[in-house]
């Protein structure tokens, strides 16, 4: 059975003192034995302080992006080696905001994902269609292209070390969540695609997170879907109370329909 994973993407929020406060409140709110894996992904500037604060807690550390090279003349960039150095275990890659505002392609995301796996960082690779693509009836085609492109050349063994997040762009920061039926349809589609590309074992084991306006009051209905294995949370991860509630709600009902 796949263990739930709840990841908070803080995006470009929180100064160092604010980050320290937030992580302390999250730690205080979480029980010592969470049934879910919990990850927080602060901005680069707060990684060090958060790393020290989550040490020996149930919370893991993740970054929001990285370069694919180990080091070099890439002004402004951060390498996988540097993230490892700070104690990161996860890294979000190919978030729709990076695809849209920084023109990140599947090819670039693929290079980054390969580098992450090489450095023993677990990439959380984001996929998802825009509203126009969904209305055109092209949602599955778009997501298929993103999955194929982002993991081109991956072996099944490498795929066992990754996480995918389905984040429909129209549901991010809009308060508009995918309905449980829409989420399950796409998650099941992605799992079927993984089976076709990498085999049954990868498809059965790989965690697929849902992201897009996840809140405490919609967590349970999303997390009990058979192919939804956790959440990538934006806005609601910026407040300890709502993030902790989401973590608790995520394992509230682990009985899968049809299981
Ligand atoms: P919101 O939860 O604010 O919609 O953001 C989702 C997201 O982009 C997480 O990566």
CATH C-level class:
Alpha Beta
Which strand order does the major sheet show?
A: 1-2-3-4-5-6-7-8
The Cα radius of gyration reads: 17 Å
Attached small molecules: 1,3-dihydroxyacetonephosphate
The CATH superfamily bears the name: Aldolase class I
Shape: globular
Distance between the termini: 10 Å
Which residue ranges are poorly predicted, with pLDDT under 50 across at least 5 consecutive positions?
255-259
Write down the domain tally.
Answer: 1
Number of helices: 12
* Mean pLDDT figure: 95
Helical residues, percent: 40-55%
CATH topology grouping: TIM Barrel
**How much β-strand is present in the residues?**
5-15%
Using the 3D structure, state the CATH architecture: Alpha-Beta Barrel
User: Using DSSP, what is the number of strands?
Assistant: 8
Return the string of H and E elements.
EHEHEHEHHEHHHEHHEHEH
Tell me what you see in this structure:
With 259 residues, this protein is α/β, with parallel strands linked by helices. The protein has a single domain (5-249), classed as TIM Barrel. The chain contains 12 helices and 8 strands. It has helices at residues 16-29, 47-54, 80-85, 96-101, 106-118, 131-135, 139-150, 156-159, 180-198, 200-205, 216-223, 240-250; strands at 5-9, 37-41, 59-63, 90-93, 122-127, 163-166, 207-211, 230-233. It has an 8-stranded parallel beta barrel, surrounded by 6 helices. Helix 1 (16-29) packs parallel to helix 2 (47-54), helix 1 runs parallel beside helix 12 (240-250) and helix 5 (106-118) crosses helix 7 (139-150). The longest helix is centred in the C-terminal third of the chain and has 19 residues, at 180-198. The chain is globular and about 45 Å long. The N and C termini lie close together (10 Å). The model is unreliable at 255-259 (pLDDT under 50). 1,3-dihydroxyacetonephosphate is lined by residues 9, 95, 167, 172-173, 211-214, 232-236.
């Amino acid at each position: 059975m796949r263990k739930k994973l709840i990841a908070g993407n803080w995006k470009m929020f929180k100064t160092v003192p604010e980050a320290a406060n937030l992580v302390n409140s999250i730690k205080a709110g979480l029980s010592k034995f969470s049934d879910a894996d919990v990850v927080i992904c602060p901005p680069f500037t707060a990684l060090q302080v958060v790393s020290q604060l989550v040490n020996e807690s149930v919370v893991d550390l993740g970054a929001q992006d990285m370069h694919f090279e180990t080091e070099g003349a890439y002004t402004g960039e951060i390498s996988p080696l540097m993230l490892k150095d700070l104690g990161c275990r996860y890294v979000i890659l190919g978030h729709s905001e990076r695809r849209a505002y920084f023109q990140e392609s599947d090819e670039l995301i693929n290079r980054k994902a390969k580098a992450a796996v090489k450095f023993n960082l677990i990439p959380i690779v984001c996929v998802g269609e825009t509203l126009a693509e969904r209305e055109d009836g092209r949602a599955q085609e778009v997501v298929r292209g993103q999955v194929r492109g982002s993991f081109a050349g991956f072996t099944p063994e490498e795929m066992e070390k990754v996480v995918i997040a389905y984040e429909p762009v129209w549901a991010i920061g809009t308060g508009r969540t995918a309905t449980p039926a829409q989420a399950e349809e796409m998650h099941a589609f992605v799992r079927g695609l993984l089976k076709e590309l990498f085999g049954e074992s990868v498809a059965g084991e790989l965690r697929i997170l849902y992201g897009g306006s996840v809140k405490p009051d919609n967590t349970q209905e999303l997390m009990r879907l058979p192919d939804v294995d956790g959440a990538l949370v934006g806005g609601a991860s910026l407040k300890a109370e709502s993030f902790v509630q989401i973590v608790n709600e995520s394992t509230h009902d682990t009985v899968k329909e049809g299981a």
